[in-house]
Amino acid sequence: MVLLSYLQRFDTYCYCLFSGIRGRPVAGRFAVWVSRSGDGYAYFAIALSSVLLHDSGTAYFKHLLLAFLIELPIYWLLKSSFKRRRPCDLGLSLAALIVASDRFSFPSGHTAAAFIFAGVTGLHFPEFGFLCYVWASAIGLSRIIVGVHFPSDIVAGALLAMLIWELVL
To answer: Rounded to the nearest 10 degrees, what angle do helices 151-168 and 2-22 cross at?
Structure first.
């Protein structure tokens, strides 16, 4: 219990540090854009394009689909079990820049999905792996900047993605 208390204090401290970035108009708008890029539409468009444009596109599409079919129920189970309130709902006087798609914050589904996408893409198309991991990391950071996640939510989302990789690979 003491460890969770320290973690919550650390998360709150880091979240407040990011509020300075959130308050800058250009940085805030950029963080919103990066966060929205992880809503899932791009993953589907890229995977579908790969089916049409690349010989190994069908295997890539199936691999992504399997990973997301495993990840989503685990993600929802964790969200509904932990029921961790979002930082913007804790009365920290720091408004979020976006409205989250659900009520709870732990783990970050956007981060988990982004890292799953990066991992599967890196496996099938290694030349894009590094770029995808940078993008996944940016999505995770943007979720803190826009005010809907704590840092540990992001770490948990990335760890969930790694667990899914182990199951799928």
So the answer is: 110
